[in-house]
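Aim 2 progress update. The chain analyzed this quarter is reproduced below.
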Amino acid sequence: MTRRIQELRDGLFANIPGICPERVVLFTNSMKNSEGQPIVKRRARSLYDVLDAMTIFVRDEELIVGNQASSVRAAPVFPEYSTDWIVSEFRGEPYHFAQRPCDQFTYTEEAKAQILETIDYWRNKTLFNSIWSQLPEQARVAWEINAIDDTWCAAAGLGNVLPDHEWVLKEGLNGFIARARKRLDELDLTEPGTISQYWFLQAVIIANEAVINFARRFADRLAELAEQTSDTKRKQELLTMSENCRQVPANPAKTFWQAIQTVWFIQLILQIETNGHAVSLGRFDQYLWPYYKNDIDSGVITHEFALELVESFFIKANEINKLRSWPDSEYFPGYHLAENLAIGGQTADGKDAVNELTHIVLDATAEMGLTKPSVSLKWFEGTPDAFMHRALGVVQQHKGGQPALYSDPSVMRILDKMGIAKEDLYTWAPVGCIEASVPGKWDFAAKGSWLNLAKVFEITLNNGTDPATGATLLPGDGDLTTFTSAEQIIKAYKRQLRYYMGLQVIVEHISDEMHILHDQNAFRSSLVHDCIERGKSLIEGGARYTADGGPTAGAVTVGDSLAAIHYALFDKKLLTPEQLIQAMHSDFEDENTSPTGPEIRQMLINKVPKFGNDDDYADKWTVEIDEFLGSTYQKEFKSSRYGKGPVPASFALSLSSVTGNVAFGKSVGALPNGRKAGAPVNNGVSPANGSEQHGPTAVINSEAKLPSIWFQKGSIFNMRLSADALTNEEGRNRVLALVKTHFKNNQYHIQFNVLDNETLVEAQEKPEEYRDLMVRIAGYSAFFTPLNRELQNDVIERMKFEMKK
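Predicted structure tokens:
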């Protein structure tokens, strides 16, 4: 990388991120002034006021401009969503922000005083307060016992949005304003329902003008800096950047530099408008390709400068941040934002879409060694092997699992079954951690309560009662002393699952209604097709496509537990129900039984077949659970936008547990697969840690049995390779063969960590020597040493495969 890029990169990590008070003050003052007006107009005006008055700055030597807060990596505060935790953490409950186990933030006493004084206005007015106050008692209890959890949507803005960047680049925001004005002119306000459209379209104009004004502020600042510098080269850069900001995003981009600046402004503003994370970038190498090619062909830029611009974009992606409550940070650690960027895939006529810009993105990924953006590669049968070898080489260099690999045909198959138009199938891109979306046509690629599958299973085994709290929401069908077969247990489990899935949906419908009342956002809505035409925000049903569904965690853990019950109690009769119950109640530590608790645990771990070893005896249980979840979500539940325009407006299965497998595991007692109380459940569709005993091919064969047709929200599959697995052509050939087999089996995704245990353990002991060490956690990468010890251990305990002949 160039000296410029190296210095900008180094500056990212010079300090612990801070908490910036600017937005909370500016936003709150604006909202006070607009009380009584429609929420969509209030929020549009507040966006204008924030962007018009917040601090802007230009870092030395940077080529792309636009900041989210008053300093690099500082996080703004969004009081409209939730505030109680802010007050608590300023008191050190459960931690002071700067003393958290991970995701620390610093602040000045002045900033603390400003924030606390300002958020007093939001007492009993936040989105979370409104949602919680309207929940049925059963839903509250399910949330409190950690069977479901909707904090990420109920206490924050909605994210997982993918705008149509190509559309913005071609038309500019003035084009969107013109479209909104045209629709306003067409409205007959005497017709019922048009007044809300009238308000929305007015808000679209205000919000887009806010962004244009923000860019002009940078144009003026850059011109001032150009006047002040005596460095001829830098003066010209600053003047060009000023010209760029006057041209875009107001008008169509003319150059590659302007196009990248446009994309950054859009990405940035969407994360100032709300704090919903996982705002993603779509097919970056496709929509920017015409601008790159034109500039290269005409000699406007060189390949080297294009790389520097892309790397500058990567720097900017790492400058933004999100302040979460500590409980929410346990689900999304590592300063997680999940800004997904897709490359590769195919063209409209089914040809390979890889181009020179694709390779530049790979070069930037390898050179920069950053966690964001999260680079994802779309593979199909026409993707050249040589390119895949290059991509696997980047995985080796990056260390943090980038690029992650996706099967284009498999995802297109899923979307086709859901009724997505044929012409839109090839355009799909991953959003956030892993979810499939259609750029500029889908509202929220993921949204909804989490579901703790292991907790529901524990409840099932205890006659419908949560053993930790004594809570009973749905009376059960028995316990281990009364069930007579594993088939009887899974039937009872499905009954409980259906009940808790219903509570998930109820919570999400209430959350949606409250977001309509408190959190309509015109800017992001205007960048998605049909919102302006319908006069509706995304949450009201303005988009073309929608499907809800929050993450689930622990399907494989439950499947392995069913296999253990079937094997040890009913098939081989190695244990009595009473022995297994006592062993689990004592967390496998009772030394006074025969066999002892530890002996029972070793029996369950070592003798019972487990998912991931190509053994139908074990695999069939996980397959049945996933089939039930996927088919039930899509066939029995509807999104709140059903009948309002978008399709299919169903729910869909997410097997992307992010790091919820660690957080959810804390509330689940010991299970029949030998897992101890409080330990993580399995991550995504990956086998439980340590259970893979027959190598990577067996794991791939087990994965092949999963009913991926239901996985629109994604299925995270982690595989850890030895540090040298991808260092030579032979190793890459073996890994590529595994990837192809996995994808030809219609599976969704695979990602690799390429690190040895020795390195990870040493990094735990000497974190100061491993500041740049990255790992793939779930659907995103994070620096290893700042993570809390539980999550570090979860990564270390994942099975490592040697890619031998």
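The radius of gyration is 26 Å. The chain has a mean pLDDT of 96. These observations will guide the mutagenesis experiments scheduled for the next reporting period.
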